[in-house]
């Protein structure tokens, strides 16, 4: 994927950045929590590492999801309006499409509290006691917004594929389709 023939295409540039964020976010979201779960470690055994990784979990995921929205948008534009592909994603515009999700992740990292890993449930919480932990309202709003945007973009892609399929049918296929 790092070959010049691939990185000259906008979609592979976005995919490369997504791959980097995927690998980076596996450390705080999967690898170390799995290790902590196996060894039953809590905040007390490694407080600074726990705070650092807890602060990185959601922002890394949010940047990853934002990059995926950029990828879906790229695919939709390429499929629906191929002439706009180079205008919207070519040259230095790719920095905008990959940079905004990264800046969003950095904003979340700097503005919101860290989560703490709780080994009894194998989860992160906003507080040392999971029963009293309260998630900031921004997190579920962000999750719902991302879900809505992804659903809208995917529905637009399905619609575009359906329209393209209808336009590509031959006259014979249209007659057969109407008879059935």
Automatic annotation (TrEMBL):
Keywords: Membrane, Transmembrane, Transmembrane helix. Pfam families: 7TM_GPCR_Srt (PF10321). The chain crosses the membrane at residues 12-31, 51-73, 94-117, 137-158. It comes from the Eukaryota. PANTHER family: SERPENTINE RECEPTOR, CLASS T. This is Uncharacterized protein. It comes from Mesorhabditis belari. The lineage of its organism: Eukaryota, Metazoa, Ecdysozoa, Nematoda, Chromadorea.
């Amino acid at each position: 994927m790092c070959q010049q023939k691939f990185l000259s295409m906008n979609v592979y540039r976005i995919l490369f950045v997504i791959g980097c964020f995927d690998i980076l976010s596996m450390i705080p979201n999967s690898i170390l929590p799995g290790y902590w779960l196996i060894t039953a470690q809590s905040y007390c055994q490694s407080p600074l590492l726990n705070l650092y990784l807890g602060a990185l979990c959601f922002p890394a995921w949010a940047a990853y999801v934002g990059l995926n929205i950029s990828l879906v948008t790229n695919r939709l534009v390429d499929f629906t309006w191929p002439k706009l592909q180079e205008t919207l994603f070519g040259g230095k515009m790719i920095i905008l499409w990959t940079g905004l999700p990264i800046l969003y992740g950095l904003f979340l990292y700097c503005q919101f509290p860290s989560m703490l890993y709780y080994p009894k449930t194998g989860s992160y919480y906003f507080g040392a006691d999971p029963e009293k932990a309260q998630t900031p309202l921004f997190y579920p709003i962000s999750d719902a917004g991302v879900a809505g945007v992804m659903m809208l973009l995917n529905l637009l892609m399905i619609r575009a594929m359906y329209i393209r399929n209808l336009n590509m049918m031959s006259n014979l296929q249209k007659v057969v389709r109407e008879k059935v």
